[in-house]
Write a structure and sequence with these properties.
Blueprint: H1 2-29, H2 35-40, H3 46-56, H4 62-76, H5 89-124, H6 129-143, H7 146-157, H8 180-213, H9 217-224, H10 229-241, H11 243-258, H12 261-266, H13 272-282, H14 285-313
Helix pairs in contact: 1-14, 5-6, 5-8, 5-11, 5-14, 6-8, 7-8, 8-10, 9-10, 11-14, 13-14
Length: 319
């Protein structure tokens, strides 16, 4: 296992290097807007633009620029400076990370709390009225785009524009260190929106996996030994059935930590996803590159954790 982890960590570095090279090539070799022009502003003179290009090193060959960029990341964890605000990209991401973590953790807890009982009941009572109603509702939730669900939720339930003024609306997020109550209430609606689609998918996935597991020989053996149906299902059936969920959950958490762009944009949550969205609108290449690398990092780490979790959940898995 230790050799496996070391090998995967080394490959992680290689993958991040490849991703950084691709994003650098896209945003610097084929730019849609001159970064020096962005920094100088609309009224910048040619002399000022040329000076900025020299100070930023944009007049150097592309391989020199990339070498300096990678060197700054490896040696100093430096992702450069925003072309819009002149703020360090690393600091911007660190400042926005708590909001994204808050959104991700709360949504994951909520959708797993909903998905497990629904998936288990649907698998045990397959083809019953409860199963058909649960899976039909899950299909509707999966089919609805997250941004559409967010807008509908705001229109129906937000305190500012909602028809039923129940939850805090967009732009009300505050850090947990500032006010726990306001932090919690401002994230309730975004958590529900994210959990609606994810819980529906996980419930269907668990139902499908558990249905197959319950027909395995070792399940019949457990029942023949006189174990209660509850023990058979929860201890023997669910433990084997959650392996596909572990894979998907790890990737989903990595993606959300990398930035839930649509949800954060709809609810105006100052997270990494919102930072990436604003950077894309402003063609702020340095910030875009930083958020892309952070997102890739979270996804790769989540993949590694999933592979390790396999061996914990299923003793048959060995590396």
């Amino acid at each position: 296992m230790l050799r496996f982890i070391i090998r995967r960590v080394l490959w992680m570095g290689v993958l991040l290097l490849i991703i950084s090279a691709i994003t650098f090539l896209i945003f610097y070799a084929l730019p849609s807007t001159d970064p020096a022009q962005l920094r100088a502003g609309r009224s910048g003179s040619p002399e000022l633009i040329a000076s900025i290009r020299h100070n930023l090193g944009l007049d150097k060959p592309i391989y020199v620029q990339y070498y300096r960029y990678v060197k700054g990341i490896v040696l100093h964890f430096d992702f450069g400076f925003s072309y819009q605000t002149d703020a360090p990209v690393r600091q911007q991401i660190v400042d926005r990370l708590p909001a994204t973590i808050s959104l991700t953790v709360g949504a994951v807890i909520l959708w797993l709390t909903l998905a497990f009982p629904v998936g288990i009941v649907s698998a045990v009572k397959r083809r019953s009225l409860v199963d058909r109603a649960a899976m039909g509702g899950a299909l509707l939730a999966i089919s609805a785009p997250v941004y559409w669900l967010g807008l509908v939720a705001l229109y129906l339930f937000s305190n500012d524009i909602g028809q039923f003024k129940i939850f805090d609306g967009a732009g009300t997020y505050v850090p947990i260190s500032q006010n726990v109550g306001t932090w919690f209430s401002s994230l309730l609606l975004p958590w529900m929106v994210l959990a609606a689609s994810f819980a529906a998918f996980y419930a269907r996935l668990l139902r499908s996996s558990l249905t197959e597991v319950l027909h395995e020989d070792y399940i019949r053996t457990a029942r023949a030994k006189g174990l209660s149906e509850r023990t058979v299902i929860l201890r023997h059936g669910v433990r084997a059935a959650i392996l596909p969920l572990v894979t998907v959950l790890g990737l989903d958490i990595g993606i959300l930590l990398g930035g839930a762009i649509l949800t954060e944009s709809v609810f105006n949550i100052p997270g990494i996803g919102r930072l990436a969205y604003d950077a894309i609108k402003a063609s702020d290449y340095a910030t875009i590159q930083g958020t892309v690398l952070f997102g890739a990092f979270f996804i790769i780490v989540a993949n590694l954790i999933v592979d390790i979790a396999y061996a914990v959940v299923d003793p048959r898995v060995r590396y």
